[in-house]
Amino acid sequence: MRRKRIPIYKRILNEIEQEIRIHPDYADLHNQLGLLLMGEKELERAEGNFLEAIRLNRKYGEAILNLGYLYIQMKRWKEAEKIFFSEAKRHPEDGLLHYVLGILYLQTGRRKKGITRIRKAIQNHPAYGDYDQKKGIGKRGAFHIDQKTEKVIKKISLNHHYAQFHNFVGLYLAKKGKSIQAIREMKKAARLKPDEFLFHANLGTVYYHQGTYRKAIQEYKKALKIDPLFGMGYANLSYIYGLVRRTGEALRYMEKAVQINPKYADLHYNLALLYSDRKRYREAVTELKKALRINPNYLFARINLGVLYEDQKKWKEAEREYRRILQITPEDEHVRRRLERIS
Amino acid sequence: MKLNRDVQAYPLSSKMLKEDFVIQSEIRRILIRTNINYTKFNFGTVKGVVYLRGLFQISHHRSDEDEEKIKELTVKTLYSFEKKVRSTPGVSDVIFQFINWRKERGQWVPIEPKKKKEEDEEKKDPNL
């Protein structure tokens, strides 16, 4: 696969190199530089940077996988196999790892082992079965090895790498506030690996920040279909529905977000606001108390709680909450005035 | 129960103008679309009153920019941010509780760390 040499890629590469000079011990930067160098076809330098990232952080899964895919591109099958074998062992549920390992076995003439791995991948991820048929590797349960096998494995490896590459460039541009260019890059990533939830989540976030809410909702929903346990995806959907004044849906998604991330005080706080807006005061109080149990210094939650008690004419409870706030922030004149009013 | 007329600027009515969650989402939207580093402060909404608390800093500025320029840009950002928050539908008041900036007679002024320390000491020692 050929990538156009777009000046922005080169510029980002230079910036990352400069950052590495300042922070040579940041594993993330070495991994990012490795990805960019792969894009520039500087494979040896890319290898050096992935190895450095792994040396700095031995458990850096993303850099380990990037190195594995790089070895495939460099046709260093044994080294690639070693990486994918240990990663597949660590993540037995990840179909792609078994699939790549299976193809690597086929590639090096170990047919039985290869077929077992590919079957395992198809079991975890049925889409690989269709992919095999399409590419002519598998037909009615039997697997054929020919020149195509190498092409398939190279394509998987390149797709993975370029998807990571475009996603990283997209994130970089988004951080710089260049949302249109960021979206273009992230769309490329999602096209190359449509089943990667993170790419859709990132796209959703950029659309959200850009103010394109309909598309943001679509992308977050795609991400959640792939990974239904992506708690912040539900929270962001809830905020977007809040912006478009569809608070019924906002409530539904925030409840889901809280269910998945029960230890996030901020999510309990937002859920409390939604309940309070609907005059479901009892549930609002419960959520605020939960937020305060997680973070006793969460002042806004305490102010909201005090005001809710006031609404319900529970003066003593309101007073107690205001006094607690003043213990933490004695300078809060607004709370002091509220307290004076009800004392 | 004692009622204080001064507090009218701070609405105490239980009747809500707009939904707090919608306001909260709007503030989040404003923050993510500006050059404010919003990871250093928190915000909350209580019956249409928006609270902002923490350290106010701008992001996206060049690391070689001098302090005066950053200060100037921060002031501009504060005015524009305040304007946006105040004009959000349903917002009846905004309470800024930044530890490094405060509004004094309509002007945004930085709270010098030294000055803040002195103020804290003054509070501790009532004889001063």
Structure, described:
The complex is a heterodimer of chains A (343) and B (128). With 343 residues, chain A is mostly helical. Among the domains of chain A are: 7-158, Alpha Horseshoe (Serine Threonine Protein Phosphatase 5, Tetratricopeptide repeat); 277-343, Tetratricopeptide repeat domain (Serine Threonine Protein Phosphatase 5, Tetratricopeptide repeat), CATH 1.25.40. Chain A has helices spanning 7-22, 27-39, 43-56, 61-73, 77-90, 95-107, 111-124, 127-135, 147-175, 179-192, 197-210, 213-226, 231-243, 247-260, 265-277, 281-294, 299-311, 315-328, 333-342, and strands spanning 138-139, 142-143. Chain A has a two-stranded antiparallel sheet with strand order 1-2. Chain A starts with 6 loop residues before the first helix and ends with a helix. The mean pLDDT of chain A is 88. Chain B is of the alpha+beta class. Chain B has one domain (17-124). Chain B has helices at residues 20-32, 67-86, 113-124, and strands at 41-46, 49-54, 93-98, 101-104, 107-110. In chain B, the strands form two sheets. Chain B has a three-stranded mixed sheet with strand order 1-2-3, covered by helices on one side. In chain B, strands 4-5 form a two-stranded antiparallel ribbon. In chain B, strand 4 (101-104) and strand 5 (107-110) form a beta hairpin. The N and C termini of chain B lie far apart (35 Å). Mean pLDDT of chain B is 78; it is low at 1-17. Classes of the chains: A mainly alpha (343), B alpha+beta (128). At the A-B interface, helix 13, helix 15, helix 17 and helix 19 of A face helix 1, strand 1 and strand 2 of B.
